[in-house]
Amino acid sequence: DAGVIQSPRHEVTEMGQEVTLRCKPISGHDYLFWYRQTMMRGLELLIYFNNNVPIDDSGMPEDRFSAKMPNASFSTLKIQPSEPRDSAVYFCASSWWDTGDEQFFGPGTRLTVL
Amino acid sequence: GDSVTQMEGPVTLSEEAFLTINCTYTATGYPSLFWYVQYPGEGLQLLLKATKADDKGSNKGFEATYRKETTSFHLEKGSVQVSDSAVYFCAAFPSGGGADGLTFGKGTHLIIQP
What we know:
Chain A is mainly beta. Chain A has strands spanning 5-7, 10-13, 19-24, 31-38, 42-50, 53-56, 65-71, 74-79, 88-95, 104-105, 109-113. Chain A has no helices and 11 strands. In chain A, strand 4 (31-38) and strand 5 (42-50) form a beta hairpin. By secondary structure, chain B is an all-beta fold. Chain B is built from no helices and 12 strands. Chain A binds chain B through residues 4, 31, 33, 42-43, 45, 48, 50, 55-56, 91, 93, 95, 97, 100-108, and chain B through 32, 34, 41-46, 49, 89, 93, 98-102, 104-107.
């Protein structure tokens, strides 16, 4: 199994531009999570999906952030417009229904907004 | 809500030293407890887990024992190596909770010097 796949691994953009981060979860996993990691705030859960349906997006910082999961093998996290304070590492993770306590993380996308 | 507190870093040790990283939790009931490790440039990966009181999780020479009386899950290793340099996250998952219940500590950066 290839594990959770994220793209791009690095993204540098200018303030005001739209940014789209992509994730492919492990096949068969029912849950998908988006996290943000910064030095100041640590690891924050942004949103998670169960069977492609968003369950809890209370961690999404503002309306500039949106996430979709059109099918079981693909999810996107979009920031529009981006701001310098969005600079962080964004992780996608997935897990099975009956072992939801163990999450499998992707390698992350390091986003820099200038 | 549930919370996890772990010692601040960075923790700097010499190779072959004994390691302890403290972790305590606050939760209703008896959560499952985890240690995740994040190597440079990678996502988090599960290191070990314990699901009930007095259980000991172990992996790669690391150990942690679920102490209900002190609500703790301290990570230990008898002889650290340079390759153990990473960020270590303690996490708790409440019993009977949904997949969003995994709560992470802020992480402890471990640096092992040769």
